[in-house]
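In response to reviewer comment 3 from the previous cycle, which asked for concrete evidence that the modeling workflow produces usable outputs, we include below a single protein chain processed end to end. The sequence was submitted unchanged, and the resulting structure tokens are shown without manual editing.
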Amino acid sequence: MLTLSRQPDHQFDDLHAQVLVAACDMLVLRALELIGKRIVRDERSRYQTLQSSGRAWFEAYTIWTPEPAQVDAALATAWANCDRIVAFYGYWDYTETSLRTALDGYVRDLVQFGQPHNRLALTTALQP
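The workflow returned the following structure tokens.
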């Protein structure tokens, strides 16, 4: 697994680790966006509510709780680019499956508890 050394100000020593976290951050935001669009599609009034709240699609799960089937359907396609990230950062111990599993678990935990996504929590989830 990836080892990220944290400094007191939460900076990382390893530039490659920062890049991996940034790439995974984009995958997580896309997954949450897919979930959000499924949630909002359920009721037409939710679109207006989301717009007036000033929140983005990827934050919809913090307003409404999605059905497990919505989460499963969204995440089924959300990790399609994990293979590219692993191929680019192949010298780390992550495989496509292990990265997909880590990201999937992180997103499912966020959705289950309605917690907003943040990079520090993602970084923690990616650590061994």
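The mean pLDDT is 86. We consider this sufficient to address the reviewer's concern, and the full set will be provided in the supplementary archive.
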